Amino acid sequence: MYESMGASPAVVTEIASYCVFGTDARNLAHEPVMYDVANWRALTPDGVEHKLQSKVDWLKIWKPLGVNYGFSIFPAAQTFQPGDWGEGFTTVKLPPLTKFNLIYTWSENGQTYKNQMDGLQCAPNS
Amino acid sequence: MDKPTKTKWMDCNARPTVNPLTISRRTVLAGLGAVGGGILTAKPAPADDLSTSDLLTTLNPRQPAPNFTRNGVLGKTYSLSQFGGKVVLVNFWATWCPPCRAEMPSIQKLYHSLAGAPFEVLALDQSEDQSTVFAYLGELDPMPTFPVLLDQNGTVANAFNVDGIPTTYLVDKAGKIAYKAVGGRDYASSEIQKIIVDLMKE
């Protein structure tokens, strides 16, 4: 995808070294819901929690290179009003085929909630 | 399914009934395993899930919309300010964005249905060149007849504080942002058309 958008080989190589998966999030509540990818973690079988590489992190790398593909990455932090939703790539620096569980959090009415998606696995090298 | 603090998490992929934030994931690269429990759902990306129940967020108080001037894919230049006295739907999108592609026909249907009314659509493509956008528009049936503009450096999106695409704003006749939608919508729905018609009557 990044090649087709005209990304330089350096940009393509960098993001290809990450475990990339698509994320969709939707607010089904009747009040605002907030999330911040900075608080999400990839939990690997060795018990280590890995910080995700957020859109903010990617823009720090991409902007000096003059590229602007930020909208391809799942927004780093967002408030979803009722009915709002979004999608994008989520990335974490893990080797191909690494298995992990995604720990994610969101806030509602000032309270933070935590949940976990189990059984994810990074793709093999293509 | 409820918040983790209230009930046990389900150990299946059933959709929660009281789930404030539903997250799913698509297999961008092969190899993702089975989805676990909790409030997550294993379902395809809702690229064409434009439920008419997903209405627009009211902004109160209304803030002035940032003015902008951008070239359209057909070469003409447009400014938001030139549409004073009209309700303007400002849509931020890109050709590679599935929900943007999914909602585009509904925007055209809306635009067509409100022909002659004080209503305009300005769709700002993000970070793509003219030939890419033009080629994509040619694939659409019907092809959009509203202005499609090029926001190649994303500065207009930044001025509107757009976090993700698609994001859409409804600007009232006084140039103030009245409604916002993050994520795709069915703009041809009667509910959203009514909102726009009511805005035009103000």
Description:
Helices cover 13% and strands 43% of the residues of chain A. Chain A has 126 residues and is mainly β. Chain A has a 6-stranded antiparallel sheet. The relative contact order of chain A is 0.26. In chain B, 38% of the residues are buried. Chain B starts with 20 loop residues before the first strand and ends with a helix. Chain B is an alpha/beta fold and 202 residues long. In chain B, strand 8 and strand 9 form a beta hairpin. In chain B, the strands form 2 sheets. Chain B has a 6-stranded mixed sheet. Chains A and B meet through strand 1, strand 5, strand 6, strand 7 and strand 8 of A and strand 1 and strand 9 of B.
Rg of chain A computed from alpha carbons, rounded to a whole number of angstroms:
15 Å
> Which sheet architecture does the biggest sheet of chain A show?
6 strands, antiparallel
What is the level-2 CATH architecture name of the largest domain in chain B? 3-Layer(aba) Sandwich
Fill in the CATH topology of the largest domain in chain B: Glutaredoxin
List low-pLDDT spans of chain B: 1-19, 25-48
Element string of chain A (H = helix, E = strand): HEEEEHEEEE
Spatial arrangement of strands, main beta sheet of chain A: 1-6-4-3-7-8
Q: Specify the oligomeric state.
A: heterodimer
Category from helices, strands and their pairing of chain A: mainly beta
Mean of all residue-level pLDDT scores of chain B: 80
